[in-house]
Amino acid sequence: MIGYKFMGKAHSHAYRDVSFYFDPAVEPVLQVLCGRNEENVKEAAAKMGWKSYETDWRKLIEREDIDLIDVVTPNNSHAEIAIAAAEAGKHVFCEKPLAMTLEQSQRMQEAVEKNGVIHMINHNYRFVPAIQLAKKLIDSGRLGKIYHIRSTYLQDWIMDPQFPLVWRLSKEVCGSGSHGDLAAHSIDLARFLVGEFKEVNGILETFIKQRPIVEDSSGLSGKASSDQMGEVDVDDASVFMARFENGAIGTFEASRFAGGNRNGNRFEINGEKGSIRWDMENMNNLEIFFLDDEPGLQGFRTINCTEEIHPYAGAYWPAGHIIGYEHTFINLTLELLNGVDKGYSPSPNFIDGVRNQAVLAAVEKSSRSRQWVSISELLQ
Ligand code: SOE
């Protein structure tokens, strides 16, 4: 695994725990952790249970005792590392968004396909039992034809204008701001549940255009190191409308300026026979409304998806004993390991990553041109 901060911790925990709760077809071995700063990577490896460490990812990729490379670095190195890993015959698991641009993501897809390696991208929210129930209800027709998705992914961690210029606020490192970081998750859930996007029309906005420079910009917080200011060249918020191939329409809002929302990943989907609602901060529950319920008793009911009948839930605790954020990574890791064993790339994989990147790029283009942008035209 290359990188060891927030996502590195989540992935490491999942590798360590997956065999505790499930019986994956292959066992993960935490062989090598890689990071540029020797002292820090050594300490992280010891803490998170990795057997050894490297300070140069190219050396890591050359090693013969590695089957899979997990990329949890900032977005500007995903493509280079993933392509090199694929060319060295290693399976690749990559953080989202897949790349900085659509073109880069397409090269990543080409590389994994050409080299016949397994690939997957980390959209962990698909692996929440309540989201699996949402998928089952929609696929089995219980909601009928889908009319609407109303999706928001709201955070508030950079509202203070004195919050420093960390890496997530630099286009050179990230490609985009809340758009690629947050809207990418909403796009993935919409593709998973509603279907493929047809066209989009959106706005990206940066509210605070300059921020204090910070010496170590690698974290998600920190104190400004001087009075010197630097330019914020990514969006603080992204808002867009969408039409789907199947006729559904949607609205999407991703923001880091939605005060009071710490990780407000939420959506509502309305179909001809019913509606569903989900909120990450209450992630074990799915709210469901059926139009054919008895008149006078109609209303949203709350299903607590902790019973054994729900995917993944049975591996953890008795019904009603909820699971959390970290378990979404464990569930995803189970699928990744089974894919590696059986020789297929579980969804969401790099093909999903490219389609996601196309929607991100289309919204960016629309924000610049103030026009609707078709996804299939970008993918040509
Ligand atoms: C930070 O904004 C972040 O950790 C994202 O990078 C994750 O993908 C998201 O799930 C939670 O917020």
From TrEMBL:
Pfam families, sorted: GFO_IDH_MocA (PF01408), GFO_IDH_MocA_C3 (PF22725)
UniProt keyword annotations, A-Z: Oxidoreductase
Residue span(s) of domain GFO/IDH/MocA-like oxidoreductase: 132-277
All copies of domain Gfo/Idh/MocA-like oxidoreductase N-terminal, residue ranges: 1-123
Protein name: Gfo/Idh/MocA family oxidoreductase
Organism expressing this protein natively: Fictibacillus terranigra
